[in-house]
């Protein structure tokens, strides 16, 4: 945290560093002020007696005490500052600061010294309990080496013996409960700072299916539900852009089945809009369920075509049989078919599709880069006046 404060100070920010009184006294504040005169050191009591060690096994006492005792004091400190802070950055196990920030209308950022992978694992502690993966009890090598399947992105990596030490505690242990609470609270912050770097812990590539049906197509409620079930049942991660007028339902909105809500929470994300070209260009995207052909080709991403109008029927046949850059789901909207085609595309079993997609994507990029030498540009150069597009 001190290193982060120093970096921010050197970048031109004015920093107030708030600590508990015991740690505050131990800091060599003079040395930090010489290097970073923009840092102001402040302290608040943590509710523990002066002779409490606050380290080793006793660190737990500090966490519990600060969570309850220090919150109102911290809130009074922040409220008294003039001008008020532009942002509060709090330790990941000091989530009371997020609540204080919300009450005072100040953005909150959580700083976690864990790796991204460990933080992601802590986010799934409740899921691990639901799936009876914890508590981890010392057993045979076979038991301890069992792969954990309920943490997205780590299905074939994390074993039971690799889970954090708190996962070996009894489910009623207050320390485990504290970690669950603190981890879930982090999701309420405006942003998250992790002590890692992108290249070390980048997401698994080509693991997400992007779904979008453009700006014209309308789905019936039944079609919408079938697509949704197929996506959830495929057990693949997906990002679905659903514009407000996508669903046509003469009977009005109906309740979403609980299993779809739960399945989406685990592996999916539904948004009202997405920057399509940027999304398709991202390395995490492994496929596109769509009726927009050329954007997917230019991005070098294989697709599942669901044609509805105009040129889409012809294009979808070309995609599957001529260009071999995707699969055709023409005239079908049924959950088991959606599930099967999503699995076929995302599991990488169709090597011919992957090879063709890369090659045709390269050709598309070359074509765009050579547009200045195209016949169209040669034609337009014949005109000296303004060209109108209508």
TrEMBL record:
Keyword annotations of the record: Transferase
Coiled coil residues, start to end: none
Which residues belong to the signal peptide in this entry?
Answer: none
The family database entries (Pfam families) matched by this protein are listed as: UDPGT
Source domain of life: Eukaryota
Could you say which protein family the record assigns here? Belongs to the UDP-glycosyltransferase family.
**What PANTHER family has UniProt attached to this entry?**
GLUCOSYL/GLUCURONOSYL TRANSFERASES, GLYCOSYLTRANSFERASE
Protein's name in the database: Glycosyltransferase
